[in-house]
Design a protein that fits this description.
With about 325 residues, the chain is of the alpha/beta class. It has 8 helices and 16 strands. The strands form 4 sheets. The chain has an 8-stranded parallel β-barrel, surrounded by 5 helices. The chain has a 4-stranded antiparallel beta sheet with strand order 5-6-14-11, with no helix packed on it.
């Protein structure tokens, strides 16, 4: 793996070295090859790439329309379209350059057994880690139902934990009643890290037709509109994770270095970039430079010194309290 342009951007995530704290989010970069066709783009600008959500059998996904632009965001209801785990492992993973960055599989399913089996098949592959997608709002079975029930979420994590020794990152839903309860349950079941947050459920209506714009009726809202919610959720989950040294990938509407810094200060060890890639495929390079400039300006030796450094009003130091 190549050395980062600035060693201060390098982080340790579940024992894996990331050359930058940025992670390209699942569903936004296909299976890691999509943006490599864009001039100037390089996977080396990200510490890790999360592959598209993968199920046991192939899925066609939801009927159109699947994507709709909203003020300061985007609704999507792709529905986990993918060729199935066997095709991904056999045909796609061998085409990826694992010397450029880390690659994280996104494990999806409709039953606990499916999650376990997809995890098992990725375990016997060069993939670096796995993200358990228990919070997808765009499928009618499994998905968000698992993510919103701490008991069911823990069952999925435990099943995946039994199927691999590779790092497991649980993707938490913002649509559950108390995200910290879900985080604790998943932590006890064996999760090594968390992604915070997945998209929020939303709907857009065609007023002339008086019907939903999306073929799935509802979809997941991403983009800058959800960033303040995501930052708060990271701060809350960090309280659960901090005593155990469990890292968080903070995500939701990151467009600039300042956005990424918010997540780091709130408690994230890494920061996901997704929707912003659709209109600026080279945005990671700019964010990395902005974080580097910030570290230099504040005489900080590494990104790790920023993690959880939030000073709440009324506190006397860099300590987060709920």
């Amino acid at each position: 793996m190549s050395q980062p342009a600035n060693p201060r951007l390098q982080i340790d995530f579940c024992g894996l070295r990331f050359n930058t704290p940025l992670v390209l989010l699942s569903g936004c970069v296909g299976f890691g090859e999509e943006y490599t066709r864009v001039q100037g783009f390089s996977n080396q600008d990200a510490g890790a790439v999360c592959l598209k959500g993968t199920t046991l059998a192939p899925r066609l996904g939801n009927p159109p329309h699947r994507v709709y632009e909203t003020p300061a965001g985007m609704l999507n209801a792709i529905g986990l379209q993918n060729p199935g785990v066997d095709v991904v492992v056999r045909d796609i993973l061998p085409t990826l350059d694992f010397s450029e960055t880390r690659f994280i599989a996104n494990v999806s399913g409709s039953t606990v057994e499916e999650y376990r089996e997809v995890t098992r098949r990725f375990d016997d592959s060069p993939i670096d880690a796995m993200e358990i997608n228990i919070s997808c709002p765009n499928v009618k079975q499994g998905g968000v139902a698992f993510g919103n029930d701490p008991v069911m979420a823990a069952q999925v994590v435990a099943a995946c934990r039994a199927a691999t020794r590779k790092p497991l990152i649980t993707k938490l839903s913002p649509n559950q009643t108390d995200i910290t309860t879900g985080a604790r349950a998943c932590l006890e079941a064996g999760s090594d890290a968390f992604s915070v947050i997945n998209t929020l459920m939303g709907m857009a209506i065609d007023v002339e037709r008086r019907s939903p714009v999306l073929g799935n009726n509802q979809g997941g809202l991403s983009g800058p509109a959800i960033r303040p919610i995501a930052v708060l959720k990271v701060h809350q989950v960090y309280q659960v994770c901090r005593p155990h040294g469990v890292p968080i990938i903070g995500q939701g509407g990151v467009q600039t270095a300042a956005d990424a810094l918010e997540f780091l200060i709130a408690g994230a060890s890494a920061v996901g970039v997704g929707t912003a890639l659709f209109y600026d495929p080279l945005v990671c390079r700019k964010i990395n430079q902005g974080i580097s400039d910030y570290l230099e300006r504040h005489a900080l030796g590494s990104v790790a010194q920023l993690v959880g450094s939030l000073r709440l009003h009324g506190s006397t130091g860099p300590r987060c309290v709920c």
